[in-house]
């Protein structure tokens, strides 16, 4: 995987080519509004002050924006768009905060950890069942890095295609939850054409002014690595999921 110096270069290219707004891509609003009283002037003032006076190294490190799609492990009909804000801890470990949109009102709905093929191969067999491959997400054009130049995005995808991700969603806003009900749910990535709802992709592409099919064609030359047989375990009927407590509807 690329190191921080590579991500820094992409950030500079992005800012120079598009400006900070362009790098974010088209606005994607959260599908829900959280209940609660409107912010008071005091809260707004405190937030502004904290923004100016407090340093936030972990947040500043989330310098790469990826947009893709997930589904619930064991329930492919539960599909949603996921906005990833990520940082590279080193060449082989990547961490992402996942939101349901890319505006200031977006809800934090989960996390994804991404590791290299080498690290994945060293995991216990049971642990591998929790992880998904990224080959199809890259080759299909579904996974994008909004706003950065095509050459930089292609280089990024070349580095991501052989990685594996473990994703948990904690707030299921795609089902209309105004609050984070239920238990965390394990998510998976798509592995073949015909699995994702094409309307999801069309809506994303229109909103962000991207062409997933064009990206698919542009990535045809990216070599597809062999996928470890322990990943994407749902395809072999090995589905693992956290059960909801009695009386809690959660993500259903």
TrEMBL record:
Region (Disordered) residue ranges read 205-228
Give the signal peptide, or none.
Answer: 1-24
The record ties this protein, via PROSITE patterns, to: PROKAR_LIPOPROTEIN
The annotated regions of Basic and acidic residues compositional bias extend over 205-215
Q: Which UniProt keywords apply?
A: Signal
A single Pfam family it belongs to is DUF1264
The keyword Isomerase belongs to this UniProt entry's keyword annotation:
no
Q: Which InterPro entries match?
A: OBAP-like
Q: What is this protein called?
A: OBAP family protein
Native species: Pseudomonas citrulli
Q: What is the lineage of its organism?
A: Bacteria, Pseudomonadati, Pseudomonadota, Gammaproteobacteria, Pseudomonadales
């Amino acid at each position: 995987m690329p190191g921080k110096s590579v991500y820094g270069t992409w950030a500079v290219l992005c800012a120079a080519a598009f400006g900070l707004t362009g790098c974010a891509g088209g606005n994607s609003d959260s599908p829900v509004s959280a209940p609660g009283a409107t912010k008071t002037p005091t809260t707004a003032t405190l937030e502004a002050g904290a923004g100016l006076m407090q340093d936030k190294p972990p947040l500043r490190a989330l310098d790469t924006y990826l947009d893709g799609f997930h589904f619930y492990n064991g329930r492919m009909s539960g599909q949603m768009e996921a906005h990833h804000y990520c940082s590279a801890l080193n060449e082989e470990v990547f961490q992402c905060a996942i939101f349901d949109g890319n505006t200031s009102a977006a809800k934090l709905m989960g996390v994804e950890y991404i590791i290299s093929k080498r690290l994945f191969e060293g995991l216990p067999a049971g642990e591998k069942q929790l992880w998904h491959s990224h080959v199809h997400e890259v080759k299909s054009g579904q996974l994008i890095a909004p706003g950065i130049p095509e050459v930089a995005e292609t280089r990024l995808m070349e580095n991501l295609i052989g990685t594996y991700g473990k994703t948990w969603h904690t707030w299921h806003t795609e089902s209309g939850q105004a609050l984070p009900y239920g238990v965390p749910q394990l998510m998976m990535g798509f592995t073949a054409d015909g699995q994702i709802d094409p309307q999801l992709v069309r809506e994303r592409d229109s909103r962000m002014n991207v062409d997933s099919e064009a990206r698919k064609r542009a990535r045809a030359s990216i070599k597809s690595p062999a996928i470890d047989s322990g990943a994407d375990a749902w395809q072999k009927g090995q589905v693992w999921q956290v059960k909801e407590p009695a009386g809690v509807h959660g993500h259903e």
